[in-house]
Amino acid sequence: MRYRHGFHAGNFADVHKHVTLLALLRAMQRKDKGFLYLDTHAGAGRYDLGAAETHHGAEARSGVTAVLNAASTLEAEELSDYVAAIGALRSALGDAGAYPGSPWLAAYTLRPQDRGVCCEIVPAECRALERALGGWRRVRAECADGYQRLPALLPPRERRCLILIDPPYEQPSAELEQATHAIGDALARLANAVIAVWYPIKDERALGPWLQRLEQHLAAPALSLELWIYPRDSRVSLNGSGLLIVNPPYQFEQRAEQWQGELQRLLDKSRHGGSCARWLVRESDVDHAAR
Ligand SMILES: C[S@@+](CC[C@H](N)C(=O)[O-])C[C@H]1O[C@@H](n2cnc3c(N)ncnc32)[C@H](O)[C@@H]1O
């Protein structure tokens, strides 16, 4: 595997994914009962935007750096929450270039009654993940294949779970199918699991049929959140960021429309982009007999 997330740390897609993740964690915490956070593709846990391994934060300049520069004028509370989390990491480390990965954001947000398991398959990344999570007792790193661990971790004793599936997409079509399989497996073990799958908006020929199959076959409510900052079907680079949210929390889409719109205005400098929150499967369309 050649993918290293550090090169992309803090780019527009990371911002989109991490704002969504924080909003999901907060929504899970509207109930007192604890839950399991499961990160199947965890990465290194945190990154240094001043280091060579992130190309000195090159991609972050049109991502998190642009959001931080607008911090005093942000309107959506989800964006302010994200900025506050980055501030907390930076002051904890005394490092103005630190950027949190999904495991750190979860560790920072979880309450005493919640817990987290973060899986990373590449040994060097996993060592970094263990260091990043070193001070947190509620979240543990596992140097393992997240897809293989999923059946052993579900259903959790809390009977509530938020799962983030964030593969590298070195082989997009195959990895989209693997994610579909993992969703089915997770729902079979815990029908109310909230599952967020990040996907790249890059090649509509792989993405369109995948979303269509989900619309036709998924036996749970599902929403897609998309933010793109380049024309969607140019295959030169990453054009946009998508999150499939299975079993989204109540009124999640209304809030997402607000903060996605604001993010787009901040990040889409050339005005080629867009954003949308779209139901793939509504609660009323779910065939409950099939669940
Ligand atoms: C996109 S990065 C994850 C970024 C992280 N979720 C974040 O938001 O900070 C994908 C990571 O998954 C790891 N990976 C790839 N296949 C995996 C698997 N089957 N199980 C666990 N980790 C895997 C890669 O090494 C890489 O670090």
What this model shows, in words?
This protein has 291 residues and is α/β, with parallel strands linked by helices. It has one domain (5-290): 3-Layer(aba) Sandwich (Rossmann fold), CATH 3.40.50.150. Helix content is 39%, strand content 19%. It contains 9 helices and 10 strands. The protein has helices spanning 12-28, 64-69, 77-93, 102-109, 123-132, 146-153, 172-189, 204-217, 252-267, and strands at 36-39, 46-48, 98-100, 115-119, 139-142, 161-165, 194-201, 222-228, 240-246, 274-281. Strands 5-4-1-6-7-9-8-10 form an 8-stranded mixed β-sheet, with helices on both faces. The protein has a two-stranded antiparallel ribbon with strand order 2-3. α1 packs across α3 (77-93) and α7 packs parallel to α8 (204-217). The longest helix has 18 residues, at 172-189. The mean pLDDT is 94. The site of S-adenosylmethionine has 21 residues, from α6.
